[in-house]
Amino acid sequence: MRTVDVIIVGASLAAAAAAKRTVDAGLETVILERKELPRHKICSGILSPRGHRFLLENFGPLPSEALHEPTACRGVTFHFPSMVSLPMDFFGGTTPHLHRKYSDYWAIQQSGAEVHDQTSFAGLEDKGDHVLVHARKHGEPVEYRARQVIGADGPSSLVVRAVYPDYPKQIPWFFVGQKFHDIIECPLSPDYFHFWFHPGLGHYTWSHARDGRQIVGVGFKRGDNFAKKHANVVNYLGEKHGVRLHPHTDDEGCAENFGPSLINRYVFGRDNVLITGQAAGFLNMIGEGMSCALHSGAICGEAIVEARLRNRPMQDMYRRMIGSEVRRTSDQWNPLKIAFDRPHEADFPAALMALGWRDRAKVLRDMWRFVVLYKEFKWGRQIARAALQRPFLGGYPMQRWL
Ligand SMILES: Cc1cc2nc3c(=O)[nH]c(=O)nc-3n(C[C@H](O)[C@H](O)[C@H](O)COP(=O)(O)OP(=O)(O)OC[C@H]3O[C@@H](n4cnc5c(N)ncnc54)[C@H](O)[C@@H]3O)c2cc1C
Question: Which atom of ligand 1 lies at the shortest distance from residue 39's CA?
């Protein structure tokens, strides 16, 4: 059995950031990844300016193989059923369009941690002064012993299930799927990520250019029919935006835990097991999850280093330190912050105010109709309560976190 200081489950961006902190502090760190590296990761790859700064500051300039074509993105364009379109540039210029297979591998290598790929986390036992980790490599059991374990294994986290077996039943699950099309004609600007606030299309509808093809994606409550939902979007793009595409050549999809960051219901772990990245529930507006994965991962690694140095309880340290990232993420969904502050990295209020009053009214009406689509999840009151508590507490209540 291998004995180390820290085991991190998942070799993605949250893991790379956490490992960078623990390795720099001299802790022996092993990352377990179920797939063979470099591995594919379903993602649009649009990195926010804050995520870009994190990568530059921590890992240096990105290598060229870590980028898709077009290599940069100017911002996001929101489209509405009333046919108003709202392009918004990112603050501070364009950001890289990441090829996750190579960007993640590069970040993991830059972290300096030892990586065991094709090794799937299967379970753990927290013994108080150490954690036993059960994994499988090529079907064979492998055991590790670590002082701390970090779950950075994404939305369907098995580490979360190991510490809170009931948690997956407590949140709604979504499916997001995308199909790749050769282009006949596409008037949508390849410089932007396009998003539709359209309740008739789905809970999350997007399109963007990648490596000469057009991606058309749709997200909806799990259980609905991907092929039908996707065909509906393709027809809509043809009729309303003049987008003409060949039948898709590839497709892919996955489950998403969209929701915890809206209602401040994060999962940070128990005792010696810490959860971070999207596994913990971090997801920004428009499903942007890389910047909060990187920042929460780094805080998680720092918390382990700090708690060991000061001989303080691990969870207590992590929960106090992670408050800043919770504010950053949950502010993006806070209606008071959206109305009176600038929680996003592109200026939605300014773009809205640049419209004539008729179009402004149409956009607000369309957004309201879109929000109503989410009514069944009963998030409205929880969002409102958290928004009202935010100015008094200076953050979001920790009592809601697991
Ligand atoms: C369709 C789609 C488009 C997206 N587009 C964007 C975008 O444009 N911009 C953006 O910022 N975000 C986007 N996101 C979100 C973003 O991809 C995630 O929020 C981000 O990757 C989360 O990072 P993470 O490090 O927390 O986990 P992940 O990136 O999910 O990585 C988890 C890792 O853990 C590994 N793993 C899982 N289970 C095990 C196990 N049992 N044992 C060992 N390893 C395991 C996985 O293989 C994976 O490598 C998109 C997501 C989807 C689905």
Answer: 49
d(CA 13, CA 296): 10
Query: Tell me, what CATH number does 195's domain have?
Result: 3.30.9.10
Does some domain include residue 395?
no
Q: Is residue 82 part of a domain?
A: no
Whether residue 295 sits in one domain with residue 202: no
Residue 394 is predicted with a pLDDT of 92
Name which of 374, 297, 386, 280 is nearest 333 in CA terms. 386
Q: Which atom of ligand 1 is nearest to the CA of 291?
A: 11
Residues 243 and 288 in one domain: no
Residues flanking ligand 1, CB < 6 Å:
9-15, 32-35, 39, 41-46, 120-121, 152-154, 158, 176, 178, 217, 254, 256, 277-279, 283, 287-290, 293
* Statement: the pTM of the whole predicted model exceeds 0.90: yes
Position 214 pLDDT exceeds 90: yes
Q: Among the atoms of ligand 1, which is closest to the Cα of residue 282?
A: 19
Residue whose tokens read 């979360």: 160
Residue 164 is part of which domain span?
2-72+95-170+263-331
CB 8 within 8 A of CB 32: yes
